[in-house]
Amino acid sequence: MKSFLSIQDCSSEELKELLALSRDLKALYKNGKRDICLSGKVLAMLFEKASLRTRVSFQVAMVDLGGTAIYLKPEDIGIIGKREPAKDMARVFARYVDCIMVRTFSHETILELDQWSHEPIINALSDWSHPCQGMADILTIREHCGDLTGLKLAYIGDGNNVARSLAFACAKFNMQFVCASPTGYELDAETLDAANKTLPNCASQTHDPVEAVTAAQIVYTDTWTSMGQEEEKAKRVAEFAGFSVDEALMEKAPKDAKVMHCLPAYRGCEISDGVMESENSIVFDQAENRLHFQRALLKYLIAK
Ligand code: CP
Ligand code: NVA
Question: Which of 128, 132, 222 to mutate to test the pocket of ligand 2 (most atoms within 8 A of CB)?
Answer without folding.
Answer: 222
